[in-house]
Amino acid sequence: MSEAGKAPRGARLRAAVRGAPRALYEELWSEPADRVPRMGEADAPVWRPVFLVLLVIAAVGIMVIRTVELSPHGAAVGWPAVLVAVAQSAALVAGMIRPIGAWWAATALAVVAVLVTVAGVPSHLPYPLVSTVPLTPEVLYPSPFAGVALQGGALFLLALRVRPRRAVAALVLSMALALFLALRTPPLPQVSLAASAIVFSTALVLGTALRSLRLARKDLDVQVELTADERARRTLLEERHRIARELHDVVAHHMSVISIQAQVAPHLVKDPTDELKENLTGIRENALEALAELRRVLGVLRSEEAPAQSARHTPQPSLDRLGGLIGSVRSAGLDVTLSTTGEPRPLPPGVELSAYRIVQESLSNVARHAPGASARVEIGHRAGGLSVRVTNTAPVHASPLSPGGRHGLLGMRERTMMLGGDLATGPLPDGGWEVTAILPVTFPATTTAAAIKATATATTEDAP
Fold first, then answer.
1. Distance separating alpha carbons of residues 397 and 6, to the nearest angstrom
2. In terms of C-beta density within 10 A (0-12 exposed, 13-18 middle, 19 or more buried), how is residue 333 classed?
3. Dihedral of the alpha carbons of 48, 51, 53, 58, in degrees to the nearest 10
4. 249: number of CA atoms within 13 Å, CB side?
5. What is the C-alpha R_g of the chain?
6. What's the CA gap between 131 and 74, in Å, rounded?
7. Phi, psi (rounded to 5 degrees) for 104
8. Residue 456's pLDDT is what?
9. CA angle (125 as vertex; 119, 131 as ends), nearest 5
């Protein structure tokens, strides 16, 4: 390799070595761990309190074993051994809250534990031993299996909350420390490096796998929530789409009325002036142009469904057709009664259409979700508007709500809000269900029942 090729490689190596401390600082200190909802929050895992209790119990048991490991056989337990054992166990429990800091504390305490063991090796024993047994540290101290378990537990809790790359870096540092201690303290009993590698690697793999499973479930919950929101949004748009199609016919009816009245008005006035004729002609032309635009809008709204030509010109239903609706529902096996209160008054077509659709959807819900129940429809004519109340008794047998249910209630709510009214739905004390809608009405002074009836037949064919 040429000198020019070696120079960049050497420069990159030196730069990597110089940047290693900063990279280590960012990977295993400054960058936070994954946030897990705490107990009491909405998305807190239900198993966390149980796991914390089990972890505390395990930490206490390992603390006792670790105290024995740090004390010579037959000698009194010293306070440094107890202090180190308590600190290592506390670091393990702290890994539930601060996994990165707890792992660093466990790593530092592993070194402190070796120093305590080295300082506690006596030159002689205060009590007689079998003469054939040499007084070596291997005889005085057991192998530190509890210490390896504490370090592996801290690594496991770290792997649960950080990316795999960061967990692997922590594993490399743990193994490097274990190798360093084994080389620097050859007289002390050591767990084999192979056993330590197996424990640490198992903790890493298990923690990483559980973290991946947790993230996968979290992503799945997010996708389910997004899907539910999108489904609700699509349903809402479909309901508004359907309502817009129906109201289009109502608007077209009024525009047709305006056009016909503008055409007839000159014949109702004796010797109309040219200015009056010109204004009425302009009104008719504007009405016809608006009808043409409405036909284009209706073509867009109905392009996906493409109904039959006869259905395109079918007038929208009103309260006059409630009798036929209830008759068809009765023929399907549902017991329905209809009652009307108040003095009937001519209502705007949009109000009558909304009232009809609310009754229709309510009776459909009774038939679907309350088998064997009876229903009652109450129409109340008030001074300020119209009230619609549909109630049903408890079903004879339960019927589960099908997926995508409650969409009928959404359509009722949209129709009521469109008119500035109120809708109340909910269960009854006897196990039935109630739907009550209040539809406000403002009556224009120039609108009469005679004018509407006089033009109803003539405009049915003109409406798109």
1. 84
2. exposed
3. -150
4. 19
5. 41
6. 16
7. -60, -40
8. 38
9. 130
Do residues 364 and 433 make contact, with C-beta atoms less than 8 angstroms apart? no
Q: How far apart are CA 195 and CA 197, in angstroms?
A: 5
Instruction: Give yes or no for a contact between 315 and 460, defined as CB atoms under 8 angstroms apart.
Output: yes
Distance of CA 450 to the CA centre of its chain: 54
The C-alpha atoms of residue 160 and residue 402 are separated, in whole angstroms, by: 39
Q: Enumerate long-range contacts of 371-376, CB under 8 Å, 24 or more apart.
A: 371/395, 371/396, 371/397, 371/399, 372/396, 372/397, 373/334, 373/432, 374/334, 374/335, 374/336, 374/337, 375/329, 375/334, 375/335, 375/336, 375/337, 376/336, 376/337, 376/338, 376/339
Return phi, psi of residue 49, to 5°. Answer: -60, -40
Residue type, 163: R
Residue type, 454: A
Angle subtended at Cα 96 by Cα 93 and Cα 99, rounded to the nearest 5 degrees: 100
Residue 448 C-beta-side C-alpha neighbours within 13 Å: 4
Lookup: tokens for 428: 């009854």
Q: How do 385-392 and 422-427 pair as beta strands?
A: unpaired
Cβ burial of 128 (10 Å; 0-12, 13-18, 19+) is exposed
Which amino acid does the sequence have at 288?
L
As given in the structure block, the two tokens for residue 99 are: 């996994």
- Which tokens go with 198? 């197996």
Spacing of C-alpha 189 from chain mean position: 54
Judge contact between 219 and 211, C-beta under 8 A. no
Is the confidence at residue 107, as pLDDT, over 80? Answer: yes
pLDDT at 29 over 60: yes
Distance CA 456, CA 464 (A): 14
| Sign of CA pseudo-dihedral 184, 186, 187, 189 | positive
pLDDT of residue 300: 60
∠ at Cα 222 (220, 225), nearest 5°? 110
pLDDT digits over 136-180, tens only? 555 566 678 888 899 999 999 999 999 998 899 899 999 998 888
